[in-house]
Amino acid sequence: MMRAEIHTMTLRQAVETAIRQNPEIALARLDEEKARQAIRVARDPFVPRVVVGSGLAYSSGFPMSIEGSAPSVMQAQAVGYLFNRPQSLAVAQVREDARGTTFAAGSKRDEVAYRVAALFLDAERAARIGRLARRDQESQEKVLGVVKAQVLEGRALPVAEKSAAYQVAHARQLAAALEADQATAETALALALGYSAEDRVRPAEQPRPAPALPPSEEEAISTAIESSKEMRRLESQIASKQLEIRGVRAERLPKVDLVAQYSLLAKFNNYEEFFNKFQRHNGQLGVSFQVPVAAGPGIGARMAQSQADMSRLRIELTNLRNRLSSDIQQSFRDVNKAESAADVARLDLELAREQLSVTLAQMQEGRATMRNVEEARILENQKWIAFYDSQYTVEKAQWNVLRLTGNLLALVDRP
Questions:
Q1: Which residue in 39, 47, 363, 408 is a FRET match for 179, CA 20 to 30 A apart?
Q2: Can you list the alpha helix ranges (DSSP code H) found in 154-228?
Q3: Mean pLDDT, rounded, for 162-187
Q4: What is the pLDDT of residues 386-415, one digit of tens each?
Q5: Which of 96, 48, 135 has the alpha carbon at shortest distance from 236?
Q6: Dist CA 282 CA 264 (whole Å)
Q7: Of 350, 363, 357, which Cα lies nearest the Cα of 146?
Q8: What is the CATH number of the domain that holds 50?
Q9: Which domain holds residue 160?
């Protein structure tokens, strides 16, 4: 069994590692390679195929034909397309499909990059807030100790002890839940980066600048439509269907094939007895014409099917364009709401910190107790948790805008 390992990374390092190692991206690369090889397969009929073999046989009486050729010591045949419009369009269609596969692979890279960024933020949030929750637990335990002493001295009611014990249990439960969330997020991040389920990827504690967003919704929508790999993939599929329709229509055109063959005949097959002249070396070079006369109803049906597929793709393209515009507008609203909530959380935190300073000063003057100080620390700690949560929400909303506009990978790759 492999030993579990903890990999500490920055957000940029995590995304770069995912691009190299993510299993889904690796599968997309294999699809790209398969599509490139499909082009060679489609072009293969235009390259003359040469087959060399032997047709040596014993003949008794008249030399009979074997598979359309006289018995020979050695025979070579070459066949290839010279003019085949349906196959030419099939090659063009396969090229277009390969281009569409490239867009699909790019879309998968963008999807994985955003997923890694989201998991990174989840793991970072759980670790940061988890530390605050453990600190909150310690403060609650100190308060419980003070309350217990007050109850024994008769200066507090037993219900106060129960309330303090509940607060300790609640803080302990929150800290354990955040620790579990951190483990889950770090494991999911490791899997997204191509590591084993036993490994973890831990966010490095390093400051990073806020991602730069487009200056307006209109520019973001324009950028999203221009850079959307999913839209380019659908457009490529439409172009592929157009080539497919042209290829079906071209089946009514004549076809021309290259035909060449060579035979080396043996003298002991009774050729001299039945033919006036015998020649051992024989060759043939020419072309074969095929002219469709009655194509049948299948061509019209196949064209109708391809046209229906193309109409469906156009509808999907329109829906995607509308969905992108709607998602961009919603993502900007989410960013604005998150930033507003973050401002409120920051002001609330500043108030709690100021209140803690006042309580500490009062304790030095003998006008506040240790319990008052710990309760003020607990309040400040809770405000820190709310503040970090708001920062997390803002950053995640910003990364979502970058995902929609197609700028996420470009921003991460920027030095």
A1: 408
A2: 158-192, 217-227
A3: 91
A4: 999 999 999 999 999 988 988 887 766 555
A5: 96
A6: 6
A7: 363
A8: 1.20.1600.10
A9: 9-59+75-413
